[in-house]
Amino acid sequence: MCRDAIIEPEFLSKGVAGDDERFLFAGLPNEAMDFANEAALQQWAKAAVAPRLQAGDVLLLDGDLGAGKTSLTKGLAAGLGIAGPIKSPTFTIVREYTDGRLPLYHMDIYRLENGGAEDLGLEEYFEGDGVSVVEWPEFLGLSMPEDYLLIQLVKDEVDDNARHITVTGHGTRAETLAEAVTRS
Ligand SMILES: Nc1ncnc2c1ncn2[C@@H]1O[C@H](COP(=O)(O)OP(=O)(O)O)[C@@H](O)[C@H]1O
Ligand SMILES: [Mg+2]
Prior knowledge:
By secondary structure, the protein is α/β, with parallel strands linked by helices. Helix content is 21%, strand content 22%.
């Protein structure tokens, strides 16, 4: 079951975030985890991350186009028991899946690279009864949540199928989650 949140196109052109509003990646990441292929990455998301998620958790997925942000989200969805299919929300900004253990709010805010994220009320998702997953979190601007798990994905320079992942918890809840998902 999936429903696209209704977001009017005019929101997409509003406002330009100044540099001072830009999201800065800070904090010390846990050690990088290496995944040889997509199946291994999805299995980690499904078996190590999804079972530990709680309502109100926010996961920010950072990485270039094709790094595997949507692919990782598919693993999370599978682990939450969502039947799918999970489609990239690039054009809808948010897709909601409500047939799993917890609601999944999958956001792709790439189209908000010139600002405007603040107008969408994403905080309601972050503080809601589900798990929020955000692709391109650098465009959140002032809508950055206080407590979030940052997952950074980097493509291997040689092997097209390999990825390197670092997980960083910001805030009390996310730090606990970061420890748990990197030690399993
Ligand atoms: N280890 C891996 N993890 C994730 N995706 C991989 C991996 N190896 C290859 N891929 C491929 O890379 C692409 C990742 O795409 P996608 O998840 O849409 O990226 P993003 O959402 O970060 O732009 C997919 O075509 C996927 O099959
Ligand atoms: Mg994507």
